[in-house]
Each structure stands twice: as C-alpha cells, then as structure tokens.
Specification:
The protein has 196 residues and is mainly β. 10% of the residues lie in helices and 30% in strands. The longest helix is centred in the first third of the chain and has 19 residues.
Length: 196
C-alpha cells in the first residue's frame, strides 16, 4: 500500500511539474523593473521634469510604444487671428499664443492612430493658459495628427497648440499632461512635464 501511494504521489508530482511548464513563468529579475505592459520603468521622462525648449521628453503611448515630445517654441499671435474661429465673447481681450511641438516615433511601433492632444501652456504666474480645440484647419497654428507613415522609429511630424492669454498676460511655458498608464513616475496629469 505504501509503495503504491509513493508511486501515485510520484506521478502526481511529475504531472504537476510538467503542467507548470505550460503556464507563463513570472520571475523576479532584480534591478530591472517592468510595468504591466513590459515597459522598463526608467525608459520615460519622469513626471514633473522641467526641460528647456528643444529638449525631448519620452512618454508612453496608452496602447503601447514610446513617443518623443519636444516643445520647440512659443509665438505670440495677433488677436485678429481668432476671427475665423468665431469664438464670440470668449475671445474678447484674449491674445493667441502658438505653442509648437515636434513629435517623434521612438519605439518603431505603428503609432499612426495616435492623437497628441494633451499639450498646453502656462502663464507667467504658473497657472494654466486657456486652450482652444480646433476642428478643421487654422493656418496660424496647425494642430496636426500623426500621419499614416508614423510607423517606423525616427518618423516625426510637427503640431501646434493654440493657447489664450488675457490682458497683458503671456504664455511662457509649454506642458505635456498625458495619461500615466499606471507607470511609476509617469503621472503627467498630476505633475506635467514643463518646457521653459
């Protein structure tokens, strides 16, 4: 009886061991930390980072992949530029400011469907500038979307965010406030990346 019991236990242990090989294996790999999508957590620019214009931030894409976001300049527009947008009283006393960005594909994923709309500006006192979402074309500040060719590493396009400032206020900084995807140190909604 004991011998049979040992043989049964041996078969059970062997079967259990073989079955484990069919399951995903999760290993503690030490110093290399991975988020739930398999991204190295140190790959992206940390939330709250302050950069100079022309410096690139690396940010995650919600569906996977990495974008490079570079604020290149802020230009003051003419209040008359706003007339075609028909903003009515919302434009009264407001000056348009054009915040220019270069977006790059850093991971080589197909990012042709990505929308980079989570950019904006800060006023001189550190408060957020009002932003305007534009449907259609606005020649002084073209809010471009990623092209169909945005599928290879190094591909890039330029886009512009329209911000407003009232009276003598000035837009002096650019921001990125994209989704964090639960990646440590990448909660840009709470603590955006800032270019000055």
């Amino acid at each position: 009886m004991r011998g049979g019991l040992r043989r049964d236990c041996g078969r059970l242990a062997a079967g259990h061991h073989n079955h484990l090989h069919d399951w995903p294996v999760h290993l503690d790999i030490g110093r290399v930390d991975l988020d739930i999508r398999g991204w190295p957590t140190g790959e992206f620019t940390k939330q709250g980072t302050e950069l100079k214009f022309g410096e690139k931030a690396l940010v995650p894409v919600k569906t996977g992949g990495t974008l490079g976001v570079t604020a290149t300049s802020i230009m003051k527009g003419d209040p008359a530029d706003l007339a075609p947008l028909q903003l009515g009283d919302k434009a009264a006393g407001q000056t348009p400011w054009y915040i220019n960005f270069t977006i790059t594909n850093e991971s080589g994923d197909d990012l042709s469907a990505v929308s980079v709309g989570l950019t904006g500006g800060l006023l001189g006192d550190g408060s957020r500038a009002a932003s305007v979402s534009i449907i259609g074309r606005f020649r002084p500040c073209e809010n471009a979307t990623s092209p169909r060719t945005f599928t290879t590493k190094g591909a890039s396009f330029t886009t512009c965010r329209l911000a407003l400032a009232g009276g003598t206020a000035m837009v002096t900084a650019a921001t990125y406030t994209g989704s964090s995807n639960d990646i440590p140190d990448a909660d840009y909604i709470r603590d955006p990346i800032v270019w000055k």
